[in-house]
Amino acid sequence: FFLCGVLSLPRCVCVRVFCCCCLQAGKTPIEDLFTSLRDGRRLLELLEIILGQKLQSKERGTSRVHALNNVNRALQVLQKNNVELVNIGGADIVDGNHKLTLGLIWSIIIHWQAVEISSDQTNSEKILLGWVRQSTRDYRPVNVVNFTTSWSDGLAFNALIHSYRKYRPDLFNWKTVANQMTVTERLDNAFNVAQDHLNIARLLDPEDVETAHPDKKSILMYVTSLF
């Protein structure tokens, strides 16, 4: 997947998975993220799915003017919902600018994921961290103190899934995960169980997390989906 200047590779993958999952749920799968969003129609469909309401009718013409009208309408909807848009204009999306298209979708993801927990992002992280620590307190040696390095060994993901009451502690043996699996195997186990049994999209792969500097926002987004 295209590696851009403003987003790390894990975040780029998250953006594509997010769009694919949303639009497939709306029976409108996408093949290529950048070309699919250029006419603005898919972008408006994405917002309809997120907001749960129909927006103004989309312009079906194929000219640049029609595409700009659709994209600008989508940007207006985002602004009304207080989504932070930094130096992103309709022409950027219509022209297929990779960097700004990814930045736009990432802003949408971060905005609505944060809203699900709290309107204040700093407070959201504290709430989420408190929930994680409470849920994993009985799992040694798990000690989550941040949304970066605390997740690198795969134990925290597995403990969170195994422990929380609405999930399924019967899906795997915690001792096997903690004592017999490699880091890569642990991460694979957590992401596969969440995808196959909890219907949570696999937004991350082991190599995204098994690193000295995991991407904080990618981990935040994934953990938020478990909240």
UniProtKB/TrEMBL annotation:
Calponin-homology (CH) domain mapped to chain residues: 1-113, 122-227
UniProt-recorded Gene Ontology molecular function terms: actin binding
PROSITE patterns, per database record: ACTININ_2, CH
Entries under InterPro entries matching the protein: Actinin_actin-bd_CS, CH_dom, CH_dom_sf
Pfam families recorded: CH (PF00307)
Keywords, in A-Z order: Actin-binding, Repeat
Family matches, as SUPFAM superfamilies: Calponin-homology domain, CH-domain (SSF47576)
Coiled coil: none
Protein name per the record: Calponin-homology (CH) domain-containing protein
